[in-house]
Sequence to fold (579 residues):
Amino acid sequence: MSEPAGAVATPFDTASVQRDFPILERDVHGKRLVYLDSASSSQKPRAVLDAMEHHARHHYANVHRGVYAISEESTAAYEGARKKVARFLGARSWREIVFTKNVTEAINLVAYSWARANLREGDAVVVTEMEHHANIVPWHILAAERGVELRWLPITDDYRLDTGPLAELLDGAKLLAVSAMSNVLGTLNEIRPLADAAHAAGARILVDAAQAVPHMPVDVQGWDADFVGFTGHKMLGPTGIGGLWAREELLDAMPPFLGGGEMISDVRVDGFTPNELPWKFEAGTMPFVEASGLAAAIDYLDALGMDAVREHEKVLTGYTLEALAERFGDHLTIYGPRDVEARGGAISFLFDGIHAHDISQVLDEDAVCVRAGHHCAKPLMRVLGVSATTRASFYVYNDEADADALVESLATAEKFFAV
Amino acid sequence: MPGIEDLYREIILDHYRAPRNQGELPVPPARKAEGFNPLCGDEVVLYLDIDGETVRDVKISGQGCSISQASSSMMSAAVKGKPVGEARKLIRAFKALMSIHESKLEGDEEGDGEPGDALDGVRLGDLEALQGVVKFPVRIKCATLAWNTLQQGLDEAVDA
Fold:
């Protein structure tokens, strides 16, 4: 293999990061595991696995329930995780953090609670063509149920949001629902100007930050957002826990979403009184063991530094984009911005005449794990005029050897399917 | 571990590179059936010209991976000009080849046997090359997409 052009300097020691991830010790089909599907779900460092095991072994009891020591310890860990998330996202208060299962549930919470209380027939919701289904389907359901209009902000030929028609689309709209980073294109959307435009039109802004929170510093106040959804399993944490950040005054005014235990302060035969924030939105036993895992994930990311995480991925993405272009030229189309400043580390591509699934299958032979398909963004796929793409995505444990393995394996695949 | 050569047999790649019966038929008299694989975005559009009890002509359009494209192509070649009843037998036999035993779902213990049990004397010929797909479970849906779409098209033709 030829030496890549130009030294690749990343801001932390990736080799030592890799040693923190037990799964990277295994091989697949007798080869070193090259995990390039973190945009789908990230791997877990030992610290996260240990934190959950520790909670389950030593402090396991339901939270906010028992008047006994281990329940209080469990509760302290759970609420401690909430405070950690609040600080990590730049929230004003921990009361603004509602734990949910994932971003999908966070967006559904907003759609079922805030939107159904505030949107009437004839109101509009603006979504973008690059949204994940999680930020489309809840609005389709609302539109069908309430006669709300769904308006689409288009993308440009260079895979950015086309903000030209934004003001017109926002006229009469109640909500702008937008992703901070496209899970397909990698495009980073600058949230602050979008929030300003939404607010100027009297609309709220909901940000799907599933891909942003794991990979770069996020400041919900700096964004001036109203609702932000994030998920734990893409940021080194476990599955089953994510959350919604929203302005306290919005959460206060919103009716409950799921009804059940914990979300009430009183239940009578003639009705109920909801609990205070944020528990008003947390019905039933919450994934508190996973919350400890999420807290450990945030500690891990904090120790690396989110600026460094972003820098690391910029370097790796730039290196890979260059290597792909150099090796495959115009046989390979990259769907997303070329400028690493304008994008994150999710790279979607297609070979001329070779289906994404076939590519992915051959890559698996080399233990290279990538995602192939529509990435839960079918409206975007239609705009791109493709049915599926292959996507490689990076995280803190990836290095240039992983990028090289991707390129080599792609070369094998191209040869295999050559017409 | 199964190698990719089990999956991508030469005859499959041949059908993928040079798919048979590509195109469309005027609707009506032909009928159109569409099949989607929501997992990967594969899509088969099937045009069936059924004359009484015979599949007179078949055309296929749509897009998909090599397995779904090759399976569509092989299916079209296998059923074109055949009686509807024989096409249905082929569907059953092909699904058996993909280890989808209908009898198993009905609790029939004998469904565990060789695919031959369900073949009922049907000769699969080239289609047997697709048997390697069974070793790659996520790709079974790619292989069966065209066949499910055919079944749907035939059922609709009967209902009409």
